[in-house]
Design brief:
This protein is mostly beta strands and 119 residues long. Helices cover 0% and strands 54% of the residues. The protein contains no helices and eleven strands. The strands form two sheets. Strands 2, 4, 5, 6, 9, 10 and 11 form a seven-stranded mixed β-sheet that branches. A four-stranded antiparallel β-sheet has the order 1-3-8-7, with no helix packed on it. A hairpin with a 4-residue loop joins β7 and β8.
């Protein structure tokens, strides 16, 4: 059974850093696209970043480019390093997975982890 569990969220001051982790069970991520999404109160869920493990290709939302970095061990762990955090980064962050070499829309989701950035 595919399961994703996020961790690493918390409260941080603006300018600080956090590292989110997504632990996969029931599968290994080598043939998957792993992604991070976020949803702020009253807003739609939006893509933050994804990595296509088969090729190593990554893509970031413009709002996080040069501040966030997605990485994976191609086994079970996918991480999101978040630097220079801003109050507008406050959201619940979700890990997603899809077995694909190109399609990043998740077929599986984690339960989410809260990130709060204070000004």
């Amino acid at each position: 059974q595919v399961q994703l569990v996020e961790s690493g969220g918390g409260l941080v001051h603006a300018g600080g850093s956090l590292r989110l982790s997504c632990a996969a069970s029931g599968f290994t991520t080598a043939k998957y696209v792993m992604s991070w999404y976020r949803q702020a109160p009253g807003k739609e869920r939006e893509l933050v970043a994804f990595i296509i493990n088969a090729s190593g290709r990554t893509r970031y939302a413009d709002s996080v480019k040069d501040r966030f970095h997605i990485s994976t061990d191609n086994l079970t762990m996918t991480s999101l390093q978040m630097n220079s955090l801003k109050p507008e980064d406050t959201a619940v962050y979700y890990c997603g997975a899809r077995r694909s070499s190109f399609d990043y829309i998740p077929a599986h989701w984690g339960q989410g982890t809260q990130v709060t950035v204070s000004s």
